[in-house]
Amino acid sequence: MAVLKTQQLMVRYPYQNASILKDIDLTIEKGEKVLILGPSGGGKSTLALTLNGMIPKSIEAEAEGKVYIDGKSPLDLSFKETSQRIGLLFQDSETQFCMLTVEDEIIFGLENLGLSKSEMERRVEENLRLVGLEKWRTAQLKELSGGMKQKLGIACLLAMDTDVLVLDEPTANLDPASTEEIFDLVIKLGEELNKTILFVEHKLDRLLPHIERVIVLGTNGKIIADDTPRNLFTQQFDTLLDQGIWIPKICRFAKKLEQQGVINWLNFPLSLQEFEKELTRQNIVPHNSMVQSNQSRVRNQTNTILQLKNMTFAYKTHEVLKNINFSIQSGEFVALLGPNGTGKSTLAKLLIGLLHPSQGEIYFKNQVIQKKNVQELMRSVGFVFQNPEHQFICDTVEQELAYGLKLLGWSKEDWHPKVQSLLEAFQLVEHKNQNPFSLSQGQKRRLSVATMLMNDQELLILDEPTFGQDFVNTEALMKLLRALNQQGKTILMITHDMELVYEYANKVLLLHEGEIQYGGDVETFFAHTTLLEHASIKVPISYALKHWLNTIEGGENLVTTLSEE
Amino acid sequence: MLQHYQKSDHFLQQVNPTMKLMSLLTVIFYMVLIFDPWTPFLLLVVTIIGISLFGGVPLRFILLILLPFSLFAFSFVWMNVVFPDERGETILFTLFNMPVALENVQTGLSLGLRSLVFVSWSLLFVCTTEPTKFMLSLVQNCKLPPRFGYGMMAAYRFLPLFREELNQVRAAHRIRGLGEPKGLKGKVDETKRYMIPLLASAIRKAERVAIAMESKGFDGSTERSYYRVISWTKKDLIFGFGLFLLYAGLTLGRIFFLQ
């Protein structure tokens, strides 16, 4: 019997004309591993919340049609009964817990079910072991890393003994190493325990080989495709592209090779392994020559804009950054990399004078920045925070942009044209009278970058600007940064996304264990296998692909198309 | 540090949180009727020794926390000496041409020490009670609806997150060119500016955590089982008896020495 079933499901949020979900007919059998894809804001999370009855029971929305879990409607089930059938893991690992310690958090759910103490004990022990957190049983939640919190989230769901697990982008806020761990764990446990799993996810490279079925929600809120991943990406490729749905890089690339007649796929690849296997089968072998570094990415600038000399920073007695030396030339696009907790944000704060070095100097255009105050420095350096909302201080978008200039004493005649041109450049003209808080995620991000460019700042520092942003917004932001870089702005960006690094940056700084372990060219960086392994950084797919390309006849020409993707 | 003390298994940590909360109330009630400085002084000493002996909290730690409060307590003495309702007759000495009377010093000391007694008993409660255990005790022993109990727990968990977020907002605003606020109006404006992003995030967090709790089968009702049962034990009896002895001793002492 189908474990999940919907019939003609329609959901509409209050004050919205269009339904977010429409005519959804779904049948999911026990043990299926299903991936749900769709454009951002396209109702994937809404679907997840409707399946367990949170919509319309707890979240105000109009819902029509039928939903069945195990043949029963969630509307007829209590929270208790629903929670034993379907479990949700959310994106934000911080806001899905309500207790202080690891064991209390698992116990919370079990107490809701009214289980006996011995049964609770058994389940806590078993499920902590399953996710590998048995040693952390009595630890405080705040001691856990983001990845461990999501593992605990999984343990909580498993402890409820649900058949269905819905994972709503649980890795969106995690670094690549933790993301892989979570995927591996879910895939392994899903197989072992024969759980039905619904993934809402767009980091697909690891996941896709384990997925049997992909359901695609279109911009109109209807299901536009329901197929195996291989069929989907071979046959419905153009439809997906039209709908703005993210297609794994490897698939996009394989498709391009096919369209250009370079390769005829017998087995369309969904992962790099499959790609390589297929090429080997077709007798295409890579030669180990180093790929020539893409010269156009490196600018011939000798103007040093930022320089650190023997800089050390310590919190109390703990040395966070040790003897840091590097310089950034004007016009460079620098990616600052490193595992979580290595002090990347601390370094960024030092660069704009929010923190001061314990030893050594930081020079901005040959002037020691410790001698300048923050306001002075901000006229030439822009700093974009992780959460755009933190930066907003005015009631309208226009005022927000004008704010810095007004502070400098500009009159309205002077700032108005400037604000106008930025509104246009950042596609915010029609929103200029809106409150910044009422903007969409992507618009907020654009505004936060725009406010930092009002004074024609030459250097722009961004602290994980793509954190928690969906694919479409990420790409829009990166294109914008590239355009700014081409206009001559120097950009320093903290990020975890190696694809972005490879595609956009022309210099890499690797911060690991308090030291700059690498500073230089991007191509060379990804060739340092041991260094990467040590800092648990994965080579981006486009980099791996590029090596293959040089070996394929006519492939060299595709190198450029690849980075234009 | 605090968590470490709350978690240790000394006597006071094993007393039912509700019992400790009630004892705090009785202390407040008892002190209302007392105006001499000796009784609160004695009670203060006994409390501090009690926390250290039966709660395993180092004296240094307790005194360090009491230090800022003793400044506050001293202000009572100062107020009573400088602005007495009625100047006492036994002039001890004059300070800047102002007579300092024994009676006024005594009233001030009494009030100041009384405030320190309240602080020390609150400290006894805070240092020896895990927040989770307190909440469970309120729900299990005092019939507090779980809806509020677990809601409070979720909110408590967010407090450090808010502080972190406030720091981020502060840094972000500094970068926008807003320096340290000037004057009262500046402070008010600053608070207003901080409130909006913090409130927006608080509302979002509250919504998410509520959905997460309900998804785990929480319906706020009393129909749930408990892994940790906070029961009444012999320890509570001993604690109550000890408290009774303390009050009895203090009262007797007052009768013999103060009349």
Task: Please describe the structure with a list of short key phrases separated by commas or semicolons.
heterodimer, A: 565 residues, alpha/beta, six-stranded mixed beta sheet, 22 helices, globular, B: 259 residues, mainly alpha, 2 domains, two-stranded antiparallel ribbon, 10 helices, flat
Walk across the major sheet of chain B and give the strand order.
1-2
Major sheet attributes of chain A: 6 strands, mixed
Provide the structure class of chain B.
mainly alpha
Globally, the shape of chain A reads globular
Give the count of helical stretches of chain B. 10
- Overall morphology of chain B: flat
Overall description:
The complex is a heterodimer of chains A (565) and B (259). The model of chain A is unreliable at 288-297 (pLDDT under 50). Chain A has 22 helices and 19 strands. A six-stranded mixed beta sheet of chain A has the order 5-6-7-3-8-9, with helices on both faces. In chain A, strands 15-16-17-12-18-19 form a six-stranded mixed beta sheet, with helices on both faces. In chain B, a hairpin with a 2-residue loop joins strand 1 and strand 2 (98-101). Chain B is flat, with a radius of gyration of 24 Å. Chain B has a two-stranded antiparallel sheet. Chain B has helices at 2-7, 11-14, 17-32, 38-55, 59-82, 102-128, 131-141, 146-175, 183-215, 234-258, and strands spanning 91-95, 98-101. In chain B, helix 3 packs antiparallel against helix 6, helix 4 runs parallel beside helix 6 and helix 5 packs antiparallel against helix 6. The longest helix of chain B is centred in the C-terminal third of the chain and has 33 residues, at 183-215. Chain B contains ten helices and two strands.
